[in-house]
Amino acid sequence: MAEDFAGVAVVQASLVDTAEIRRDVSVHANPMTFADRAESGVQLLSRWAGILAFVGAVAAIAYLIF
Fold first, then answer.
1. I need a labelling partner for 46 at 20 to 30 A (CA). Which of 16, 19, 29, 39 fits?
2. Would you call 31 helix, strand, or coil by DSSP?
3. Between residues 64 and 29, which one has the greater pLDDT?
4. From CA 58, how far away is CA 51, in angstroms rounded?
5. Is residue 8's pLDDT more than 90?
6. Burial code of 27-52, b = ≥16 C-beta within 10 A, e = fewer?
């Protein structure tokens, strides 16, 4: 049984990878800018517009069939 696990090696993060992770955390810790908030609103509006367009298309097809 021990022979099956003998080939498994543990990989540790290098110092360069750790430094990149720490730098990324500081970048993401900034508060949202006006552009970020506007983009969130546009995404929400776009999502609902897509849903409404789909429902409208299904309703139009149902109207034509029945």
1. 29
2. coil
3. 64
4. 11
5. no
6. eeeeeeeeeeeeeeeeeeeeeeeeee
Residue 35 in tokens: 């552009």
Task: Report d(CA 65, CA 57) in Å as an integer.
Answer: 12
Distance of alpha carbon 66 from alpha carbon 56, whole angstroms? 15
Q: Distance (Å, rounded) from C-alpha 53 to C-alpha 40?
A: 20
Average pLDDT over residues 15-36: 67
* CA distance linking residue 41 with residue 8, whole number of Å: 48
How many Cα atoms are found within 13 Å in the side-chain-facing hemisphere of 18? 4
Hey, what amino acid is at 46?
A: S
